[in-house]
């Protein structure tokens, strides 16, 4: 499907493995935009999990103080439609957002992701999204793990198909794969 993006911002996808530096790279891109940055955290805070809270705090400390933070674990589409220029949205992370929606049945999930793609293509601000690459390891031995991996992989591919730039962060390097590779179609059989 082709989207008219003449009145919209830029879409940038930053993907990579755990601890690869993808969030740091996305933050540097947001900083370089020269725009007012709104950091969209998709995580759910959990006071009963000190290790998770420490991870969130590490991200918090790394961000510039003037960045606004929104906690949006579910309703990314609303946020994308509400924010107006001259902002830059940094959404971190798609994997956490997918995990938050694992209770949705397949039909509802497909509607959710379709709404997200449509919202991204209509966003009037630059949007930088951070997404994990999960499919490079073993196939999870349990159904929910496979659902997560498949949903996230499919979503990353869909967003990559509409993105202006796609970066893969690995081995201490951010590679602009949108310049190095050839874009595949955005639709495929699961």
TrEMBL record:
Reaction(s) catalysed (UniProt annotation): adenosylcob(III)inamide phosphate + GTP + H(+) = adenosylcob(III)inamide-GDP + diphosphate; adenosylcob(III)inamide + GTP = adenosylcob(III)inamide phosphate + GDP + H(+); adenosylcob(III)inamide + ATP = adenosylcob(III)inamide phosphate + ADP + H(+)
Entry keyword set: ATP-binding, Cobalamin biosynthesis, GTP-binding, Kinase, Nucleotide-binding, Nucleotidyltransferase, Transferase
Pfam families attached to this UniProt entry: CobU
Pathway listed: Cofactor biosynthesis; adenosylcobalamin biosynthesis; adenosylcobalamin from cob(II)yrinate a,c-diamide: step 5/7; Cofactor biosynthesis; adenosylcobalamin biosynthesis; adenosylcobalamin from cob(II)yrinate a,c-diamide: step 6/7
Positions that bind GTP: 16-23, 41-43, 60-63, 92
Described function: Catalyzes ATP-dependent phosphorylation of adenosylcobinamide and addition of GMP to adenosylcobinamide phosphate.
Protein name listed in UniProt: Adenosylcobinamide kinase
Species per Swiss-Prot/TrEMBL record: Aphanothece sacrum FPU1
């Amino acid at each position: 499907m082709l989207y008219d993006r003449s009145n919209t911002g830029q879409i940038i996808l930053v993907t990579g493995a755990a601890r690869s530096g993808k969030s740091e790279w996305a933050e540097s891109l947001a900083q370089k935009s020269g725009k007012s940055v709104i950091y969209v955290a998709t995580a759910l805070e959990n006071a009963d999990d000190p290790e998770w809270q420490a991870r969130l705090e590490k991200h918090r400390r790394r961000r510039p103080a003037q960045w606004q933070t929104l906690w949006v674990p579910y309703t990314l589409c609303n946020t994308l439609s509400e924010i107006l220029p001259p902002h830059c949205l940094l959404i971190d992370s798609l994997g956490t957002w997918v995990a938050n929606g694992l209770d949705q049945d397949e039909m509802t999930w497909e509607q959710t992701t379709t709404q997200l793609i449509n919202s991204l293509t209509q966003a009037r601000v630059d949007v930088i999204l951070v997404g994990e690459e999960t499919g490079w390891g073993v196939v999870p031995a349990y159904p929910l793990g496979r659902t997560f991996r498949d949903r996230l992989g499919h979503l990353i591919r869909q967003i990559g198909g509409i993105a202006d730039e796609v970066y893969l962060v690995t081995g201490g390097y951010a590679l602009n794969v949108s310049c190095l590779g050839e874009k595949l179609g955005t639709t495929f059989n699961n």
